[in-house]
Amino acid sequence: MLSANEIRKVVAERTEHQKGTGKKVVDVREELDRLEDRGEVIVHRIRPANRPVPLTTLFGWTKQIPTDRLWHHKSCGQCGNIPGYPSSLLWLMNETGRTYLNEPHQTSCTAWNYHGTATSNPVALAAVAARNFHRAYETDHFPLIHCGTSFGDYKEMRKLLVENATVRTKVRDVLRKMGRDLVLPEEIVHYSEWVHAMAPEIVARKKHSLTGVVATVHEPCHYYKMVPEDAVYDDRVYAGQRPAVPSGILMELGATVADYSTWYDCCGFGFRHILSEREFSRSFANLRKIRPMVEEAHADVAITSDTGCVTTLDKSQWIGKTHGLPYMLPVLSDVQFAALALGAHPYKIAQVHWHSASAEALLTKMGIDWTSAKAEFREYLRSLKNGAAPELLHPAHGEIENYFAINKGQVLPEEVPAASRVPGATAPIVGGRSE
Amino acid sequence: MNPILVLGGGPAGLSAASELAALGAPTLLVERESYLGGNPVRWHYSLLAPDLRPAEEVIGALLERVEGDARIERRLSTTLTKAELGSHGYRVTLATADASETRDVAAVVLATGFDHFDSRRKFEYGYGRFPDVVDFKELEGMLHDNKLVRPSDGQRPHRIAWVLCVGSRDLQVGNPWCCRLGCVVSIKQAVEVRQKHPEVDAYIYYMDIRTYGLWEDLYWKSMQEYGIKFIRGRIGAVTLAEGGSRLLATGEDTILSRPTEVPFDMIVLASGMEASAGTKQVAELFGVPVGPEGFLTPRLTDLNPVDSGLPGVFLAGAATGPKAIPDAVTEGMGAALRAYQYARD
Amino acid sequence: MSIVAHLPRRVLSLTEEEAANPPAMELTGRRKATGPEHELAETIFAEFRQDPRHHEFVLGCLNCGECTTGCPAARFYDFSPREMLQIAATGDATTLWDAMQEKIWACCQCYTCNMRCRFGNDIAGIISVMRELSVVHGLESTRKTLAPFGRSLTLLMTVGTQVSSDMIQPDFFRDWGPFATGSDKVWDVSSDVMRKAIPSDVLQTTRSSWEVSVQTSLELFRIYEETGVLDMLRGLDPDLTEMLIDIIEERREEFQDARGRFAKEIAAMRGPVASFTG
Question: What pLDDT, on a 0 to 100 scale, did the predictor assign at position A18?
Fold first, then answer.
């Protein structure tokens, strides 16, 4: 295999070549600085309070990953039908002592809709992105993107807003009509990058041995095929030939990451297809992904790091038995798997019961007593039915927040001195479980 | 007269050195490897296209001329580490693993050649992962040694595919140029395979066939006389076929506009040509302009393709771009003549 | 006897009409659009070629087929990203029109073609441009294709998330198995209770992916109004659009009422909370 440095050399040569033909891949982060100097955008910067960890991208660029004071940019698919995905991430943050906001003042990126039905346009997508960016900025918490598509879309939109003055002006005008301004984050960060940066702290809290657990990774397309220069690679993961996430954390936790020939293929989600062309989605998921994972790699679990991929790979399997594909390979996100390894409750936290392919055989292999956990969860459901208050990972929001994206004293753009337009001079806000 | 330095002992360098000696000029031939002959010797090339003459015969003749001539001082396992322009040529530093020395030379011929593209960089093809995906320079060695077997199990392959343009004409790996030789060499290899083993099925996947000039004859014959099948379209991914013992090549037949998935016993990648590490190094040492593709750029590509434009520095062979052996030999002669004129004046 | 003598005259000479309007590229046997369909096809084609993204996304093509090789849709549909790019680069109005009837909707938007393309084309991107145009012009085929999306479009336009747990009903998602809807049948509690068992208040709703504050939905709707998305949707489904406007009107009233109720708290705040009036 080519070493990561050799790959980087190749890619560096490629960038150099593109410079020669006037098509050099530019680092938009440098452009951001220039735009900020001209007063065109506000850059949401990563501060020491975000406790950043540097990682490396495909192009060998350094990418700072904030690990604290984070604003959860949730994923519509995760929250809608695999809620153990976000709850495991929140749980891992509580365990590692990280603070965050998980607010009702967020929209999705709306790119699922765009890629599925095209009932949007780039200006609208950019404005939606910028509205969420501004909200994160005014709360002085750095956005952490849960979804692969949102991650890819936001990078495309940041690029568009940096490179296209017309779109920039239009979006700024729209935002100003609602009292907001054009804010672009210094880094667009996918939650799996947070997991990779936090690996030492996560691994230190491991409770279950993963020896003998074979995991196959499905790499979410929109994590690394959109704006590829910004995806994180690591010499220690496939010698830097494939993205570092989510394989890295699985290796660090001691699982065996097994390769299979169709690793490069998409899951079959298709945006539109998962809702209205499911014959396609399930055929692709079963034939191109699940079958090679089971038959070539003898996997115990498929791990991925995007909403659509978990959904497609998991939900498509049940019908597979009518086509002679009776696999039912459990499909989990990296954070669910990591939380389980750290002793999280399989039902209350990892919420494995929302998945179609049962994770129970996997839990047994991981040495987790799921039978008593299941009985406990059944009891918990009964108590909820009888009106008991639910157990929460962070304090509930007050009624006012059903209506208003309230400010609790955070720094607003106009109050920041022009020379150091960064938030953070005053006490941070409490929304979720921040200080 | 101080000697004329020829850097690189491949076809172009050998041709330049023997031509200089023939003109009566003292010649210093420097080669970084421990042997002369360049890539054809390094990779044990088998027959050369289009005449199907053994490479050993062709390179052997060049070597004979150089090795039998006392006016040519040969320095193997030696690299150039420094070059300074003086009033009569260059003062250069030559280094071996354990020593270095300074020499004054009257002129320089840069014949530092190319490297084959490292096919691992195009990872969809599984080179380095599946043993039966081989690079076409490795197949040359197999044909040369008359050992056509699958690396995985030592068995004779029944069906072989050639994939053209691997690391050529591809912006994804930063190499948008054509290697000029992948087509004719792959066709030659398929012909060679079918000559020796008529029972082996041969398929060539291509985007365009560029057997330019008189080489077209081999392309036609390969179909007419050797039954080689051409599929227009590229293999885009190699996986394992069901059962795991064969390779599955997935592609699009772009003439029939339909996806194809064909099991093969062996897949041969026609890897492209890039400026060699030595070419890049001498570009820096002498300050020769380099084009966006990484090859040395002559001052006038049309009127004088062997002049660098710098005083006393002349260019020959694949250092200025992908080239076949006859072209490299011709350029070696041209560069020798120009270097000799420069040194004499 | 000369062969030419047997050929119909039509081949040898153009009609007056043809001579007056010579086609840019005429393919033998190609379907020819006529009437209003032809006019619309020409309009769409002109808009397509004038879109600034066209120039940026479509660079050229070696017709190598690697895009189609990696394409998940090409495996199961009569679809090829290579063909889409050819149509984008060299096609004419009718060819584009035909591709926009059905083929463009096969694409999974996975971007595998983009990552493989030797020429650096943005194939997934140019397909999106074609799709946008089919929505803007409310093509009949597009309405049909997008008919099942009323529910998710409603969610998207009103709260800005695309899926909710109450959308995933067993009747519609029978192929997903008994666990798909939060397994209330297995656990013997309602889906509301299943959601309550998620340990975060914002995730406990069944009507949206998460709870979205009224201000946030109104800001989003303002974006749709200002950036032409609402107009796009009106072309596609006027009834749905009117319904959305009604929903948003109600939310605006709800927001105004809340401003009254929380007047004291709001007065103490600055920024969007204070200035945004819905």
Answer: 42
Q: Which domain holds residue B285?
A: 4-113+276-344
- Does A428 have pLDDT greater than 80? no
Same domain, B10 and B93: yes
Residue C142 lies in a domain: no
Report the 10 Å Cβ neighbour count for B320. Answer: 27
The verdict on a CB contact (< 8 Å) between C111 and A222 is yes
Residues of A in contact with B123 (CB under 8 A): 241
The token duo for A280 is: 């396609």
Pick from A15-24, A319-328, B249-258, B265-274 the range whose average pLDDT is largest. Answer: B265-274
Cα distance between residue A88 and residue C149, in whole Å: 30
The pTM assigned to this predicted structure is 0.88
Q: Both C124 and C158 in a single domain?
A: no
Give me the pLDDT at residue A189, please. Answer: 98
Are B172 and B286 part of one and the same domain?
A: no
Q: Which of C73, C227, C270 sits opposite A123 (nearest CB)?
A: C227
More confident residue, C275 or A28: A28
- C78 pLDDT more than 50: yes
Domain that holds residue C207: 149-275
Give how far C31 is from chain B: nearest CA, Å: 19
Look at chain B and report how many structural domains it folds into. 2
C203 has a chain A CB within 8 A of its CB: yes
Tell me: ipTM over 0.85.
yes
pLDDT number for residue A16? 45
Same domain, C154 and C122: no
Provide Rg for chain A, Cα atoms.
22
Residues of B in contact with C80 (CB under 8 A): 252, 257
Give the pair of three-digit tokens for residue A316: 């498509």
CB contacts of B251 in chain C (<8 Å) are 65, 69
**Helices and strands (H, E) in chain A, number of each type:** 19, 12
Please state the domain count of chain C: 2
**Each residue's pLDDT tens digit, A310-342:** 999 999 999 999 989 999 999 999 999 999 999
Determine, for residues B169 and C68 on separate chains, whether the beta-carbon distance falls below 8 Å: no
The minimum CA-CA distance between B212 and chain A, rounded to whole Å, is 27
Q: Does C173 contact A at CB distance below 8 Å?
A: yes
- In three state form, how does the secondary structure of A204-240 look? CCCCCCCCCCEEEEECCHHHHCCCHHHCEECCCCHHH
d(CA B146, CA A105): 71
Query: Looking at per-residue confidence, does A307 or C184 come out higher?
Result: A307
Is B252 within 8 Å of C83 when comparing Cβ atoms?
A: no
Interface membership of B128 toward A (CB under 8 Å): yes
Q: What class has domain A193-384?
A: alpha beta
